[in-house]
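Why should sequence recovery work at all? Because a backbone constrains its sequence more than one might expect. Tight turns favour small or flexible residues, buried strands favour hydrophobic ones, and helices have their own preferences. The token representation captures these environments compactly. In the example below, the structure is given first.
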């Protein structure tokens, strides 16, 4: 079980092809602060049929895309 499992399940159930979440929204959904480890864990998202399309440090957002 990954520390980001709640986030991956939320993304899978979202139902949208492409969408964007702010760092704050991700932290609320995951229940943990987002940090550099997110870059390692984002690979797990493949198992849920999605991928991280873009991480914007300027906007503080992550764009997700359904595979």
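From this structural description, the recovered sequence reads:
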């Amino acid at each position: 079980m990954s520390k980001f499992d709640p986030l991956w399940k939320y993304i899978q159930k979202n139902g949208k092809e492409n969408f964007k979440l702010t760092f704050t929204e991700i932290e609320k959904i995951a229940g943990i602060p987002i940090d550099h480890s997110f870059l390692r864990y984002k690979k797990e998202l493949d198992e849920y049929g999605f991928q991280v399309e873009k991480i914007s440090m300027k906007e503080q957002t992550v764009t997700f895309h359904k595979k």
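A few observations help interpret the result. The longest helix spans residues 5-14.
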